[in-house]
# Entry
Amino acid sequence: MKQLAAALPANIQHLAGLIARKPEEYTNQWAATGDEAFSLYTRTSTVNLVLSLNDILAESGWPFPSFLNLREELNVRLWPIISWRLLWRGSLFASLAARAGSEDAERRCHIDKLMVRIFRRHQRRIFGYWLQSRLLQGKKPILKGIQATYQRGIFAACMPTLLPLLDFVMRDYFETNRLDASITTLRDAFDKAGILPKHLKPGYAILDAKKDPGATSLFSTIENDLRLPGQGG
# Structure
């Protein structure tokens, strides 16, 4: 644990160094997923817009839904009037914008319902991604069971089965079969290193962090941040 915590800052900075930076010539292509961030540059304005959505969700206790097609989501901002069709389809940007002036309790209730609706809308692609994962090939019967349980609406029964799979993924990451290696191990290492989610946020979050003299500094400027879509939730 102590060794992992000590290595985290350098590893995170190394990861940031692998992310695509501003090209010499303009391109309208940008990273809409974490994988694409290593080959496609994302403008700081786009990073800041995604980060603002991230912050709104975090205030209501939700992580950023990385399974969304961010290109579709951010194109909504080009509409002069947010249509009811976009709201019905569960567009994250359109739905949050429509509730921008709501009271906190009302907004949280709306976000809770919105996130459930968004997952349901994308469930086929999410389960398909898991079922096609190389790492999870031996877990297909379990994943299909979770999918069937979700589709029957027995949502509370899904989580107790999903969490051990997350620990399985972490054991593969740590290259160990020890059952005490889990997602908790990684979380505790971040705690020991003093690295919080806000320290990983890109864009304007780095400027905000500079105003706090006691804040952990991983990135000196926006130009070398960890600009993964939805990072820091």
